[in-house]
Amino acid sequence: MKMKMIWQSASWWWLRIWRVPRVWASWISIFAISMGCYACATDRHEPKSLNGTSSVAVMEVHDGYKGRWLRSDRVEVFVAVEPMFRLLSFRTIGHMSLMATSDNPPAGLRLALMEPQQIPDSFDPGNQPGRLVSFDTRSANIALQASSKTDTRYTIDVALDDDKPRLAITCRLHNDASMTRTMAVWSLVSFPRRGQLVAPFGNEPRARRQLVYPFWSRLPQPGVRYGFDALTIDLDIPLQGRAFKVGLTTDAGWAAYVGGASGDTSTLLMHAPRMEQAIYPEGNANVTLFEQDTAEESSAQTQSSGAMTSKPKTWAEIEMVGPLMRVEPGQSIQHHQSLWLLPAITVAPDPDSMRRQIQDAWDSIQADNVITIR
Predict the structure, then answer these.
(1) pTM value?
(2) If one looks up domain 60-366 in CATH, what number appears?
(3) Would you list the domain boundaries of the chain?
(4) Residue 164 Cα distances to 104, 116, 296, 342, angstroms
């Protein structure tokens, strides 16, 4: 800015040399300096698009949140930054999203902090407002405000594939405390409590079942079915108790939600690779399925992202957690995950059949085979 003002002051003398009247020269010089200061100010505050050019972050509104739509040729997602960060309505263009909405929160994908166990303020880092640091039509970098309750903060990169129905997400959790801490990234996607949740026991057939149940999960559950290679939860069957949760230690690293509205069996798959030899929170489970059907106080109410109300809350979740890592002050850890939209499948009472159909559809899309997405 200093160099600009020097040049603009010198321009006054050039105008005088060319015999421009003194008053005109003064006004032209003042105008040039004002425009230069404005340009400097906008350069400092405007987010940059990912191709390096200046871009104005015009906020759009969706489902009560402010943010920006990202779109590819096939899918779209809304990146919400106000009043808090969320990834909403990941969907095929022209179709309804399978994610939960603000009509029955928590909506979409949200983030939290996990230590060796969940803590009372686990959801505070992910419930902060965000800022679009940079973006283009298909990708964005978001910085969330720091969580004063946990001395942590999130930065997130999201990007839609050019030719696949995939949303790639990289989450960085920063340790702003003055001490070394052990923590992990925690990501949750919410769905209406209807349809099916599916999770495999491992990559290979007949993998060992490694399941973790909290003390408050009642067993047996009429909606939970166990196959040789996977388990399913039928969300249309009433719960025994107020909530149910099961964690899986699985190198498959994925779980899927099938269905939504009556007759719709399209699928959203969530995937995060499991790190070999790493230790994960809450019994070493890296994938968790959860459902709740009431807002009454219970041991599970900390799964909610906000104040409890008298209005019943009914939703289901797929949760992914990263490995526990020691993080020095001022350092961060990161976690990679992705969301995929898959075609409709045939709902079957056999969990292994459901798992095979989802795996085949996912393999076909990753291999670029032609397949129709609903």
Answers:
(1) 0.81
(2) 2.70.98.10
(3) 2-45, 60-366
(4) 29, 35, 41, 10
